[in-house]
Every structure is written in C-alpha cells, then in structure tokens.
Design a protein that fits this description.
Distance between the termini: 64 Å
InterPro entries: DH_E1, PDH_E1_Alpha_Subunit, Pyrv_DH_E1_asu_subgrp-y, THDP-binding
CATH class: Alpha Beta
GO molecular function: pyruvate dehydrogenase (acetyl-transferring) activity
Radius of gyration: 20 Å
Number of helices: 11
Number of domains: 1
CATH superfamily: Thiamin diphosphate (ThDP)-binding fold, Pyr/PP domains
CATH architecture: 3-Layer(aba) Sandwich
EC number: 1.2.4.1
Catalytic activity: N(6)-[(R)-lipoyl]-L-lysyl-[protein] + pyruvate + H(+) = N(6)-[(R)-S(8)-acetyldihydrolipoyl]-L-lysyl-[protein] + CO2
Protein name: Pyruvate dehydrogenase E1 component subunit alpha
Helix content: 40-55%
Shape: globular
Bound molecules: thiamine diphosphate, magnesium ion
Number of strands: 8
C-alpha cells in the first residue's frame, strides 16, 4: 500500500554539501538565463524550455543518486544534464546546433544523451520517457546491477495512459525505478486545477501498490531526503517509488509562451517567498557557513563557466554537410536523380 510521509524535518548536511547544492542550482539558473539570451539573439532555434525555478528538484535528487544510476526526462532537460555532470559547453553547443554539442549539433535539446553520465534524454513526446525509464530499470534488474533509474515527468504527462501501464509493470516486476513527477502546476497553459480532479498525483500509485510521497520541490534538502528514501526502497529490491515534487517554473512553457494564463503576482510571490537558491543562500549565511564575499566568488565562478559555454557554443562550427549521413539508420545516401 502507498504510504504518506511528511518531509518537514531538515536533514543534517555538511557545509560542503550545502555549498555544493548552492553551486549546482546556481549553475543551472545562470545557464538557463544565458540560454534564454542566446534564444533571443536567434542563436538557438526551434523550441527552448527553461528549467528556471525547478533547480532544487534535480540537484536534490542527484544528491541522493550514486555513480551508475540512470536518468531520463522530458524536453525540459537542461537542468538534468548539468546536475548529472554533463559538460555545460557540450549542452550549450547542442542547443545552438554546433559541432561541439553532445549530438554534434544535429539533435538539439530533445535529442541529447550521455552514455558516460547515464543520461538517456531529453524526450519531446510527452510521457514517452516513462516506459523508457522502466525499461532502463528492467535492464539493470535483468543484469543484476544494483542501480536505480530516475524517471522524470510533468504533471501534464501524469494524465497519460502509458504512465499507468508502466506503473503496473514496474510494480509487477519490482523494477528499481523512481517515478519523479515534477508538478510545476502547469502543462503548457493548463493549470493542474483545470486538468486534474484528484488533488494528489502520487497517490494514484496506490492503485498499483506503489508507495510514494509528496515533496516540497522548492527545498533542496527535503528533495534530497525524500530521494534517499526512494533510492533505498529501490536498492533493497522492493520495486518502484513515486515522488510528486511540488515545484514551479518561473518562465513560460517555452520561450515563445507569454504565460498569460497566470498573473505576474503569482510568479513574483514564488520568486520572493519560495526561491530554492535564495533559501539555501540564507541558510549558508545565517548558519555562518559562508560569507557574502565567498558567495560572490562562487557567483563569479559560475558566471565564468556559463560565459565560456556560451562562447564555445558560438565559436564551434556548424556540423559539416556530410554529417547529414552519419548516425542514421540508412547506410546509403540517396543519389541525385
Ligand atoms: C503526446 C504529446 N502530446 C502533446 C504534446 C504537446 N505538449 C508539449 S509539452 C506539453 C505539456 C506538458 O506538461 P508537463 O507534463 O506538465 O511538463 P512541463 O512542460 O510542465 O515540464 C504538451 C501538451 C506533446 N509534445 N506530446
Ligand atoms: Mg508541468
């Protein structure tokens, strides 16, 4: 049976860990701000889905992960890639469609992978990554690898049929998969209140015998703690776990969304009262773990990393024409008639 837990108690973390989370969340935020700028300059084409506001989700869960664990997510994936240690240069250059990108500039944000970091995309079809995540977990179980797969999806995706088919199989086979519902309150312009009658998404797991819990996604420590519970359950061979992480995206669905379906005040309130980076900053300062100057130095360091990534993503050349015929299933290029 599904069990509800409340995650109010803050776990003890060291100063180094706290500084690490601050740094990792800030990297995602600055990277995304830069990606937004490059998009505005016409250097990133197609869609661009920013993760600003949701940083604590991936950083908290990566803190609970171990080497070799896997992750798969949707198109809103830049944060996931950075949090699992992928190179900001390679990610940004993929966004600008350049040779130095993770898919040689041929994939963009929705077709980017890293075998080394066990990042399996980046999927544009809403919900499609959910069965893929169960499949990854199946492969680990089949091979006897003691690994878990973090399968992220949104509140919108949570209403898809394939999610529930996957829940059933994952529980039936006790797959080591953590279903992370990033409930950022909106699916494009549709609020959860408009799309969903049941107030809780994680509790739907009860119908399949999957336990889970709701987590405050604006609090990186609460996310880490819940992540550790989920990971422990999977590693003990007890099967899947659901984390419904309540979070918020500050920007529109994509760069082309003016977000008219919500008020400026709603966004402003979240930014001012719940921001995940600002709260860790306050914890660091009030706990005397860091001084303003030390935090400024970290801010500068992160800005430099992001600026370097942006420079690289502009300077790296576009893929050569011949690249059109590599990394594809067909092995013969069509001849001109
Ligand atoms: C199968 C499918 N249906 C519709 C779309 C169009 N679409 C893209 S994103 C999106 C909303 C998804 O919202 P959510 O799952 O909450 O993720 P978020 O964007 O909030 O991260 C929709 C309907 C799609 N890409 N795939
Ligand atoms: Mg959503």
């Amino acid at each position: 049976m599904a069990a509800r837990r409340t995650t109010t108690k803050k776990p003890n973390v060291s100063k180094e860990e706290l500084l690490g989370y601050y740094r990792d969340m800030l990297l995602i935020r600055r990277f995304e701000e830069k990606a937004g700028q490059l998009y505005g300059m016409g250097l990133i084409g197609g869609f661009c889905h920013l993760y600003i506001g949701q940083e604590a989700v991936v950083v908290g869960l990566e803190a609970a992960a171990e080497e070799g664990d896997k992750r798969v997510t949707s198109y809103r994936d830049h944060g996931h890639m950075l949090a699992c240690g992928m190179d900001p240069k390679g990610v940004m250059a993929e966004l600008t469609g350049r040779e130095g990108g993770y898919s040689k500039g041929k994939g963009g944000s929705m077709h980017m992978f890293s075998k080394e970091k066990h990042f399996y995309g980046g999927h544009g079809i809403v919900g499609a990554q959910v069965p893929i995540g169960a499949g990854l977990a199946f492969s680990d179980k089949y091979r006897g690898d003691d690994r878990v797969t973090f399968t992220y999806f949104g509140d919108g995706a949570a209403n898809q049929g394939q999610v529930y088919e996957t829940y059933n199989m994952a529980e039936l086979w006790d797959l080591p998969v953590i279903f992370v519902i990033e409930n950022n309150q909106y699916a494009m312009g549709t609020s959860v209140a408009r799309s969903t009658k049941s107030p809780s998404l994680w509790e739907r797991g009860a119908a399949y015998g999957i336990p889970g819990e709701e987590v405050d996604g604006m609090d990186v420590l609460a996310v880490k703690e819940a992540g550790e519970r989920a990971v422990a359950q999977c590693r003990e061979g007890k099967g899947p776990y659901i984390l419904e992480v309540k979070t918020y995206r500050y920007r529109g669905h994509s760069m082309s969304d003016p977000a008219k379906y919500r008020t400026r005040e709603e966004v402003q309130k979240m930014r001012e009262e719940r921001d995940c980076i600002e709260s860790v900053r306050q914890l660091l300062l009030t706990g005397n773990h860091a001084t303003e100057d030390e935090l400024k130095a970290i801010d500068k360091e992160i800005k430099d990393v992001v600026n370097e990534a942006a420079e690289f993503s502009k300077e790296s050349p576009e893929p050569a024409l011949e690249e059109l015929w590599t990394d594809i299933y067909a092995d013969v290029a069509p001849q001109n008639a």
